[in-house]
Amino acid sequence: MALSFAVVACSSSIMCKATNANNHLHLQDLSYIKRAALISDKSAGFTSPHPNFGCLIVTPSAEVVGEGYLYAQGTKPAEVLAVEAAGERCRGATAYVNMEPGDCHGDHTAVSALVQAGITRAVIGMRHPLQHLRGNAIRALRSQGLQVDVLGEDMQSKLVEEARKACLLVNLPFVYRAASRVPFSVLKYAMTLDGKIAASSGHAAWISSKLSRNRVFEVRGRSDAIIVGGNTVRRDNPRLTARHGGGHMPIRIVLSQSLDLPEEANLWDLSDVSTVVVTQRGARRSFQRYLASKGVEVVEFDILNPRDVMEYFHDRGYLSILWECGGTLAASAISSGVIHKVFAFVAPKIIGGKNAPSPVGELGMVEMSQALELIDVCFEQIGPDMLISGFLQPIPDLTPTIPSEDETFAIDPTVAPFETSIIFFYKTWDLYGAFSNFSPHPIQMPDEDGNYVTWFSVEHYYQANKFIGVSNPLAQDCIDKIKSAKSPEEAARMGRLTQRRHPHLVRSDWESVKIDVMYRALKCKFSIYPHLNSMLLSTAGSVLVEASPHDLFWGGGRDGEGLNYLGRLLMKLRSEFLGESSAASESTCIAL
Questions:
Q1: How far apart are CA 525 and CA 435, in angstroms?
Q2: Cβ-contact 99, 178 below 8 angstroms
Q3: Does the reported pTM lie above 0.85?
Q4: Residue in 63, 67, 79, 300 annotated catalytic
Q5: Which of 113, 392, 444, 546 has its CB 3.0 to 4.6 Å from that of 80, i.e. a possible disulfide?
Q6: Helix (H) or strand (E) holding 533
Q7: HSE value, Cβ hemisphere, 13 Å, CA-based, for 23
Q8: Which tens digit of pLDDT belongs to each residue from 251-307?
Q9: Greatest extent of the chain over all pairs of C-alpha atoms, in Å
Q10: Strand pairing class (184-192; 320-323)
Q11: In 3-state terms, what secondary structure has residue 482?
Q12: Where is the secretion signal located (predicted)?
């Protein structure tokens, strides 16, 4: 009997130790996942909003030996950077990523890096929000023998949900955009304690403190664009800059139905950042021509409403938009269901005034029970002000309940994926995103002396070629800066800005050679990467369209009015590659 008790006691002790060890490992996993989510946000404000990926490599002895994060669209994946930092210490280690790898559709660099480095386990904070990428990397890693744990699926608890939420929050714009087909939109306003955004006279400088205004600059830097209405332009004449001394500058958007706007306004100064004016079709044609002469882009809608405008900017690739408008436009945006989150800066001031404006206009509600209640409300004191933030719409559920196209095809073979005869591509994370000139695929091209030079992307090479051959030290300096740019986005920004500010530095034959420059770069890219070549050939019989709604030269335009030269060049290359394959097959047949 005593022996029996001893055995039971020993087993209990072993079970207790195993449970404690598992709990410890569990807590470590969550800590590392939160760290991956934290570092994934490091490039905020320096580059355009993009999917945020962070990766940690941790040894079995719990030592962090490598970290990495995606800097911008078209740059090295976080997993590759983390593996490079860890080196040989990757063998037998665990990789922690806040989101399932997949920053460029058609590219498997991240998965390959983890497998080839000898990683044996991967802990993933959340599945990829995009349907065409969701689950792909997880399946690929498991097929290579890695243990893959996904928060909320393979690991569940209250603490797990907190860690998973951290992963969701760092990619909110991406998650909302994928679920709602409009950019993630934040309504921001500052008001007095009695709910006024200006005095009865319209004067509003300043309601909030300098600390609060600095926070607004940070929020702007995390946005693709800032939206205001015509009243704000007329009353405040804002600049709407991020004011951080460099890096990403959000586009300024003005919504005005009548186009009753002043001829002189800070927003018409495009020296640092562009402005888009959105209006009703046919409004003030003469003023539209005036804006066009200043370089301001004008986009017309048959009926101007926030939902249609947001769908347009979704198609334009925007992830996050900040609304800094007055009460009338704010009410219209809320009623249209395009506002996802609210940032309200409340200052300890009272201004009064029966006619003083409030942050949100008429919503048609007559009872308090109809009031919109914020979700996950947060309170933060910023100097003398209180920042109240919360969501108007719940965070979308990413639990994979809807079958993917491949899974649907397995269930019903008559439903074939990708039946369409037109294939659209634009952002690198979109379906067929690897076709983009911003994709993270370095190329080697000969320079003027015939020596091969490596360029980080097709876009790097294209932008630098604007200034090649110009006998001016500034042109060479611009080429060097573009070549060393950390991302295709930065290379494009440098090239476009220099072309706009210093047109004399652009080579005289640029307009006649730019198509050939792009063609040669694309041919190199699709020649040296076999998986990209295979992807291009798989589209045989389909029309390829670069889906930019605003680039009417390289893209297809908003209503198909664009020249779509990027799509044309890819189709030309596809024909050439198919011809080569056919010729090779014929040669093989003859040899046999």
A1: 10
A2: no
A3: no
A4: 79
A5: 113
A6: helix 530-537
A7: 6
A8: 999 999 999 999 999 999 998 889 999 999 999 999 999 999 999 999 999 999 999
A9: 101
A10: parallel
A11: helix
A12: none
